[in-house]
Structure formats: C-alpha cells, structure tokens
Amino acid sequence: MVVGLGISGMSTAIRLHRAGWQPVIVERSPGRRKDGYFIATMGTGQAAAHRLGIFDALPDRTPPSTSCNFEVERSGKRRKSVGIFDIPLKPKPMLQLRGDVEEALFNALPADVEVRCQTTPTAIAQDADGVDVTLRNTVSGAETTERFDLVVGADGLRSTVRALVFGPHERYLHRLGRIVAAFQLPRVPTGLGPSDGAMQFEIDRSLIVYPFADHLPTALFSYASDDIDAEFTESPVERIRAVYGPAPYGRLLDEVIDGLEHAEYFLFDSAEQVKMDCWHRGRVVLVGDSAWCPTLYSGMAGAELLGTVLQTHPGSLEGALTEWERRLRPYITAYQQAGAQGALLFTPPNRAAMVFRRAMMSMRRSPLLRLVLTAIMKAVPSFQMRNSDITAEATPPAELRAAGYSANE
C-alpha cells in the first residue's frame, strides 16, 4: 500500500510495479491535485524521470532567452537582474509546475494499479509477516482492515503514516522560522512581459514572481517569523498585508497581494524539515516529504532508488530498506543543509545579507565573474548532488542490470 497520490507516491507505485509488486494507492483527497506552483527539476530529478519513463512527458517551461528578470523596489525603481536558476549547469534545470510532474506520473501509472481516493489509514499494526491497515472512507466513515506486505508513507510533511507508526509530528518537524505563500497569478503583473520575472527583497521578507514560457506566472512570498503558530490566527492575505506593511506597498506588491486575496488555490504554510534517524520501521517505510522534506526533486529519485534496491535485494526486506537508507542518506543530508541555507537567501535577515545578495547577483551578470561563481558553486557538494543520478551512483552496474536497466539507461 502506498499512502499519497503525489509525486513520491506515484513514483513509488510505478517503480514497485515494475519490480513485480502490486501497489494500491490510497489518497485522503477526493482526487488528484491538479494545481501547483514552481518546481525546478534539476539533474537528480531528470535522471529519475528518465528511469520512471516520464521524462518525455514533462514540459520544460523555462522562459526564452529574450525574457528579463528584474529586481524591483516599492518606489517603482527596478534594475535588470538574473533568474534564480540562471546558472550554466549540466544538465540544465527544467522549470515546471508541480502539476506538470504529477500529471505525467499519473498518466504513467499502470492500468492495474488501484487508486482509492477519499481513503485514509487510521491504524497500522504489523508483525514479521505483514501489515494490517485499518482504512477509513472519509465520506461514509466506513472502515475496513486489509493486510499488506509493505506500507509506504508518501503522504507529505504532516504524514499520517509517520504519526501512526513513528510518533507525533513534534518529534520530527524542525521549523526554519519562515512562512511561505505561493499561488498562480491571474495575469502578468503590470510592467512585465509574458515571460519576465521579478524579485523584491527586503529585510526578513521577499516576493518572487516566477515566469514561465507558456503559462501564467506564479508568485512566492517568503518571510521570517518568531511565532509560527500565531501566523495561522488570521487569513493568509491579512498576514501578508501586515507583514509586508505598512502601505504603500508599491505597484508589484499591491497587484500580487490582490491576486492572493482572490486566488481559489494557494499554499500558505511554515517552512519545515523532517529529520529522522531512520526512515523505516519493520514493513513500513517513508519517502519524500514524509521522511526528509524539503527536497523538491528527490521525491522521484528517492522512490526510484527504493524500487531498485527492493528488486536487487529480494532476500530480506529489512536488509533492502537498510541498504536503501545507507545509499540515500548522504544526498538527503546535503539537500537539507542547502534548504536551510536557502532560507537566508530568500529572506535576507539584515542589511549586510541584502548587500551580499546584491553583490552575488551582480557577479552573475558579469560573464567573467559568472564563470568564476559557477565554478565555485559546482564545487559545493549540495550543487554536485543536485545533478547526481542517485540510482546510478548508489547502485553497482551489475545490480542495475539485475533491475532491468540497459547501459543506455
């Protein structure tokens, strides 16, 4: 049983099905989520997408080279800048919406993979031979108990599977002291071209408008908070107006805040990481945000590697899961460290950080200094790992052949 119809859940189901398992996916929501915001699929995610057979179905919405990125101020002053991912990495990052990835995975699910929506686990009990899961229909309230060989928790940051098997959220969630709000804009902001981006950075708060080649832009608010719980005592737009106040906000902020107020779908949540000493317990294993949030691209990669290790180590489930963790943990550690550092990049805590960030952006506009900066960034382990093929690097060639991969894959 795979709990969660998101990127990690569907990736797990596809890969385990290929390895000979018969996955059943359960999802609390009424159906597959079709909205979503900004994703940069870097080398790690691209390699996993190739292995899962969905790479050709992923659109690359990277803006054309003729687009511009601007750093703006409330006064209306703006200067040309560079995009967040405007770095000559190989392979080049692909910019997408989360919904793009989920649609590709959903369409790639084998026909005999059962998907049950409006269904959630309420109890999980296991022994040496299997796992008994009590499932509740969220509409009728009816409950049934079924037995599975393996349960995969791919149900997000506040995972029900993790809470039932490993303990309360408070034991594993580590707040980064940041709140994020993201949504799709209803139109291109005034003064920007259809594929232009914009960034507005102030101390402890920022706004980024992410452009796409053939889609309306999305917006991301990110701000620091000393009292995360208090952020949820008012509506998201009320909190944004208060945190980014006092007015006047300036044209860009004003338009984007108005868009948030009228948005049908949006994300408003605290930025948190999941930190666990072990991602599996018996016949229950966690993947994706349930186990190691935040790593946007490793939802596919971690799941793909799980299927490979289970296929190449059929003799012992415990041994396979332990080996999977051993191979994956160095990558996740690097991703989490980069995520914590990125919080400071997106929300500069003081004026010195603002000056440093602006200097870094200026370096990236200079062709010569950009080459130097790129060389430095490529030497950083977290950047190297973001473009790693996790399965190929963590798995000996003989095991890949045993898992059914050709040399070209």
From TrEMBL:
Signal peptide: none annotated. SUPFAM superfamilies: FAD/NAD(P)-binding domain. InterPro entries: FAD-bd (IPR002938), FAD/NAD-bd_sf (IPR036188), FAD_aromatic-hydroxylase (IPR051704). Residues 2-292 form the FAD-binding domain. GO terms for molecular function: FAD binding. This is FAD-dependent oxidoreductase.
